[in-house]
């Protein structure tokens, strides 16, 4: 916890700061803003937390036009539960690639069939942005 | 429905999925602006959907071959690849130094001092 706070603070502050004005309340706000959280990290340094991965994956799936957002949970299978086509599956994997700035090899991408597999793959990928 | 038929169909379905994926990425390479990409992606999808119900294995094989030929013809010469991936701009840029090498911080002090 302290490490995350420190990272967020160091990523945001540039000038020497008077210690008294640094409040935990202010730096906690930074944690919720995704832009400041990683403003000075080169790609691949920060690893995403599982919850962040889950949230972002679910938001991508919910924004997909052919999906009914109320049915989306962390366990859905794209073709069986959400009623998508195999081509829709391909499109969804591409959308996930764009969200996390990943390059998934073709054969691996073919295997991503459900939310759970997607979350596991992205979480274990070293370069997930 | 023999096993061989199903196996062939499954292989064809995988080929179609991979072809669709590559074609979609290529479409994104050519049509950089999102609104253009969405239109082109819709047209690509329609082309795939039009042949969705074909059952005959040989016709499907022929269609996949034509599709792949079209894809090869339209490949972008400078595709967008994520920087850290092979072919991207950051690939191998800062490789991890081999183990055992260390930097000696002597700040220019001479050894006989």
TrEMBL record, chain A:
InterPro entries: ACP (IPR003231), ACP-like_sf (IPR036736), PP-bd_ACP (IPR009081). It holds the Pfam family PP-binding. GO terms for cellular component: mitochondrion. Gene3D superfamilies: ACP-like (1.10.1200.10). Residues 51-126 form the Carrier domain. GO terms for molecular function: acyl binding; acyl carrier activity. It comes from the Eukaryota. Keywords: Electron transport, Fatty acid biosynthesis, Fatty acid metabolism, Lipid biosynthesis, Lipid metabolism, Mitochondrion, Phosphopantetheine, Phosphoprotein, Respiratory chain, Transit peptide, Transport. Its main location: mitochondrion. SUPFAM superfamilies: ACP-like. Pathway: Lipid metabolism; fatty acid biosynthesis. It is found in: Mitochondrion. Belongs to the acyl carrier protein (ACP) family. Complex I is composed of at least 49 different subunits. Carrier of the growing fatty acid chain in fatty acid biosynthesis. May be involved in the synthesis of short and medium chain fatty acids. Accessory and non-catalytic subunit of the mitochondrial membrane respiratory chain NADH dehydrogenase (Complex I), which functions in the transfer of electrons from NADH to the respiratory chain. This is Acyl carrier protein.
Automatic annotation (TrEMBL), chain B:
It is found in: Mitochondrion inner membrane. The keyword RNA-binding does not apply. It is a peripheral membrane protein. Pfam families: Complex1_LYR (PF05347). Keywords: Acetylation, Electron transport, Membrane, Mitochondrion, Mitochondrion inner membrane, Phosphoprotein, Respiratory chain, Transport. Residues 14-68 form the Complex 1 LYR protein domain. One of its GO terms (cellular component) is mitochondrial inner membrane. Transmembrane segments: none annotated. GO terms for biological process: mitochondrial electron transport, NADH to ubiquinone. Belongs to the complex I LYR family. Mammalian complex I is composed of 45 different subunits. PANTHER family: NADH DEHYDROGENASE [UBIQUINONE] 1 BETA SUBCOMPLEX SUBUNIT 9 (PTHR12868:SF0), NADH-UBIQUINONE OXIDOREDUCTASE B22 SUBUNIT (PTHR12868). Accessory subunit of the mitochondrial membrane respiratory chain NADH dehydrogenase (Complex I), that is believed to be not involved in catalysis. Complex I functions in the transfer of electrons from NADH to the respiratory chain. The immediate electron acceptor for the enzyme is believed to be ubiquinone. This is NADH dehydrogenase [ubiquinone] 1 beta subcomplex subunit 9.
